Amino acid sequence: MAKYILKRLALMVLLVIGMSFLVFASLYFAQGDPAEIAAGPSASVEEVEAMRHFLGLDQPFFVQYGNYLWNMLHGDLGTSLLSRQPIVNELAVRIPNTINLAVAAMLLACIVGIPLGMIAALKKDSILDNALTTISLAGISVPNFWFGTMLILLFCVRLHIFPTGGMTSFFWTAKGFREAVLPATALGLQVAAGFMRIGRSSMLDVLQSDYIRTARSKGLKERVVVVVHALRNGLIPIVTQMGTSFGGLLGGAIVTEQVFAINGIGTYLINAINQRNYTAVQGSVLLIATMFIVVNLIVDILYCVIDPRISYD
Amino acid sequence: MEEGKVLEIKNLHASFSIQKKDYEVLHDISFDVKRNETVCVVGESGCGKSVTTLCVMQLLPNNGKINSGSIILDGEDLTKMDKKEIVKVRGKKMGMIFQEPMTALNPLLTIGFQLRESLMLHRGVDKKKANEMAVEYLQKVGIANPESRLKQYPFQLSGGLRQRVLIAMVLSAQPSLLIADEPTTALDVTIQKQVLTLLNDLKKDMNAGIMFITHDLGVVAEIADRIVVLYAGRKVEEGTTEQIFRNPKHPYTIGLMNAVPNVDADEYEFAPIQGTFPNITEDIKGCRFNPRCTKCIGKCFEEAPETIEVEPGHLVACHLITKED
Ligand SMILES: Nc1ncnc2c1ncn2[C@@H]1O[C@H](COP(=O)(O)OP(=O)(O)OP(=O)(O)O)[C@@H](O)[C@H]1O
Ligand SMILES: [Mg+2]
Asked: Which CATH number fits the domain that encloses residue B191?
């Protein structure tokens, strides 16, 4: 197990370096001139050239990338072309909000989606099952920015139950909870619906499997059969799906942060793109990609814990 | 209830609903299993062997149901019990070994956990004692290093070992009826032999009845005391191993015997059975075997034959056979 995790960690470092190359290269070859942006709209040609030299942008591609990588490995993602602040500092302020939102949405999706999927499977073909299946289908199809806007209209504008936006505390505090409910719901809906569907179908498979029949033939009560023998097996496909779902959540968070006026990585990235703030775009994309990789590592470890067959070889 | 009978199946009818229509899968099945006796249920694939065992275990899939008849285990009619009562009998008084050992154990739980679970439930022992007993039972079914096996997961065991674990699990509850549904089909020949020997030995010191499902007549010859031959959900013949092998009456049974080269069958003129086995959705008038039978008479196409006793304990359902034969 420890060996497996070490192997995965090493792989992760390589992945992040590979990512950094892709991100750097794609922005290097993108249209536009960072030196112009950094020098400001009223700068003369000489000033822009001076800025280009100052930023090291007149050096060959691989030298630039080498510097970038070297700095990155030392925890430096460069400075923002506009605010002149270190990117790392700007991201550090915003990342807690994004993680807070994504984790709240993930938790919500797990707490709501998994049990409902399992219940639907246990009550297969009942009215409840049909209702839940319909809801999950709708949930998957609804775009989260639309759903978020509807939530705001209903719960904030009409009913005044929740704040319309902003995020100032973590969701496990009373204040943070009120702030997180709507954005987490908007963001987590699709994932919850996905978990519900996977959970239902995997649980149905499991309940028909040979080992469940063995468990029943032993004379175990149905409750024990479900809780001890079926649940964990039914969870495996959901856990496998979690990493990818989290990626979806991070993507969705970019939009959701806009809808709920949350000052997170998503908002930062959108602004950076609008302002052609190249270094900021680089830094935030890299951060999002790294988060995705880290989450997948966590998921794989979780998978290991649940299924003894994985860590064996 | 007669002395010594563990299981009595009487006039059992069962059906499956397929696309909202009911199709009969078992028609009027009756036979008994006594203590210390191995009854082999034989027949081609799809004839209803597994369904019979699932009726007894009350584990039919959702679309299956028992329509009438009774299944009496140790004097109690299982068909009259509700779910709660069944759960108390299942595993405790009747245990089942399934066809496919590779998938019959829970992949996420250790062998030890799965064995202890049974012991704690049926023998009323605590975890520590259950562990000791699990070791004993693994030894009994011939597994070396039982202590270390307990900590392993099913994927670390071969098919033969898993089947032994399953046998140990069933035995540990000390059931009066052991049902084995083709327990050796998925195993290679040498392991098959070992498992059969094991079951034979265990029967002796268990004082239980065994209902053994197979379509392998070689296996039947080795372990059966009595044989029940099923064809398309009907019992066509029943008798002691001696009666069925020496003096098979039903054309289907004779065909089965001829399909096996190693049985001394030269005296019968029947070739291996022609034609294909009917699906349960097919409606065949008269004797269900008539499309494949080479000896049909007019009656065979009109009415189903009654079961008659041709000699004590030897039952046949065929129009060609009359009591005088
Ligand atoms: N869940 C089900 N729904 C509908 N039909 C079924 C179902 N299970 C079994 N059957 C049908 O019932 C008949 C008897 O099946 P069964 O499993 O008892 O056969 P078997 O004698 O055990 O065969 P095998 O030797 O292949 O195990 C078959 O025709 C099968 O197609
Ligand atoms: Mg079968």
From this structure: 3.40.50.300
Q: Is the CB–ligand 1 distance for residue B271 below 6 Å?
A: no
Rounded Cα gap, residues A256 and B213, in angstroms? 61
Are residues B34 and B94 in contact, defined by beta-carbon separation less than 8 angstroms?
Answer: no
As a whole number of angstroms, the longest Cα–Cα distance in chain A is 86
Residue A67's CB is within 10 A of a number of other CB atoms, namely 13
Assess if residue B259 is contained within a domain. yes
B273-276 long-range contacts (CB < 8 A, ≥24 apart) are none
Look up residue B110 and give its two tokens.
């250790």
**Within a domain: residue B99?**
no
Whole-number Å distance, alpha carbon B25 to ligand 1 midpoint, is 8
Q: What is the pLDDT of residues B47-80, one digit of tens each?
A: 999 999 999 999 999 899 999 999 999 989 999 9
Residue nearest to ligand 1 atom 18, measured at CA: B48
Nearest residue in B to A305, CA atom: B108
Pocket test for ligand 1, best of B40, B51, B235, B283 (most atoms within 8 A of CB): B51
Within a domain: B160 = no
Residues of B in contact with A306 (CB under 8 A): 108
Most confident segment among A119-133, A272-286, B198-212: A119-133
ipTM for this prediction: 0.87
* Rounded distance between C-alpha atoms, residue A293 and residue A284, angstroms: 14
**Going along A199-288, which residue ranges are E strands?**
none
In angstroms, what is the span from residue B24 Cα to ligand 1's centroid?
11
Q: Cβ of A188: how many Cβ atoms within 10 Å?
A: 29
Q: B118 to chain A: which residues are within 8 Å by CB?
A: 218
**Alpha-carbon distance B27 to nearest alpha carbon in chain A (angstroms):** 24
Which of B141, B179, B162 minimizes the C-alpha distance to B59? B179
When pLDDT is cut at 50, 70 and 90, the band that residue B45 belongs to is confident
The third-level CATH classification (topology) of the domain covering A93-307 is MetI-like fold (1.10.3720)
Closest chain A C-alpha to B283 CA, distance in angstroms: 29
Any idea where the domains of chain A sit in the sequence?
2-87, 93-307
Q: What predicted TM-score, i.e. pTM, was given to this entire model? A: 0.83
Nearest residue (CA) to ligand 1, atom 22: B50
Q: Characterize the bridge pairing of strands B64-73 and B5-18.
A: antiparallel
